[in-house]
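Hi, does anyone understand the following?
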Amino acid sequence: MKVTVFGIGYVGLVQAAVMAEVGHDVICIDVDQDKVDKLKEGQIPIYEPGLTPLVTSNYEAGRVDFTTDAAKGIEHGEVIFIAVGTPPDEDGSADLKYVLAVAETIASHMDSHKIVINKSTVPVGTADKVSAKISETLAKLSKSVTYDVVSNPEFLKEGAAVNDCMRPDRIILGTDSELAEKKLRELYSPFNRNHDKIIVMDIRSAELTKYAANCMLATKISFMNEMSNLAEVFGADIENVRRGIGSDPRIGYQFIYPGCGYGGSCFPKDVQALARSATSAGYKARVLEAVEEVNYAQKEKLFEYISRHFSGDLKGKTVALWGLSFKPNTDDMREASSRVLMERLWDAGASVKAYDPEAMEETQRIYGSRSDLELMGTKEAALEGADFLVICTEWQVFKAPDFDLLKEKLSLPLLFDGRNLFEPARMMEYGLHYYAIGRGLSVKEQ
């Protein structure tokens, strides 16, 4: 099938590459000429395992192309994905200006029936707004062209997006059009062979499904972080609690790992957006507001531990920081806990020597050059001249360090672990003062 994707960001690029991989003919549209040129040269703007070879091989094979020519893309595609950003507005609600701008562009150039798919994460009711914008634009141009608007939310995990797209758990189609459903079943048939993963529902339910899924996962994380705080208050070990409740199949082990808060492009934005949408509809989403509040506080946790350990005096301290991205296997630092920690440390007069396997360039882009931040080439180099170590992201490379080397390099045998990678008893054997989330007192305090 001939497919057009508006927006070559995280969702659009992965979707386009995977569609091309199974044989569809894909054109990607973006307003950024530099991004388009770089993609044609094989330079991928994001780090995502498996994405670079997928994009380059399909571009070389002619199954995917990149352009800023919207008219060309609209003429090409019988199916048109809208995968542009929906950044939070000042009040936290999703800003639909880019989505509606694409809808207007599509209407301006379409001369035959199009199936317009909302792939961006959008509030309930957005399909109605997209449909109204297309209809309004067609009327202004005195054009009589039919179209369908479908909600087809994505459920990709950063760090596993290619696999999630190739082997989806479910494919949600929000439509009441038999034609659109038939065409999209054909489009997704390569991903739907083992068993039927397609779930068809009304558009508004599809739009809410996306938000509900992310908000449920964020709720599990914030709930577990709340329990970790209670574990500290009561003198319990949250790791034992996690194993105890995770063994219940109704709860399960996924997303119940306590830590220093969630980040990324989805959970913070989507929890906030759904809560604000509820407020606009006259409903107070108390659980969502609590999820957001707990996560905001949890991102302060590591700095609280550090400040308490040093009685608030961090001036002149040098901190080794492992992990800058919001999670492993991505270079994304949006809403990352590392950013909150670094900014608190700088305000307190400390400096940071940081290492991350993929997010170094992104850190440089965000913070530029500053005297209190050094980006180091290896995790060992970050230890040189540092007083103590903090871990913010659970990259595999951090899970089996040389603890003797840690003690040798650091001026203080002190480790603050925001992801609970190690056993406190083991750290005691190594002679390290160890702080983890919800795991009781540090070795020093014991």
User: Anything to note?
Assistant: Residues 321 and 354 are 5 Å apart (CA to CA). The radius of gyration is 24 Å.
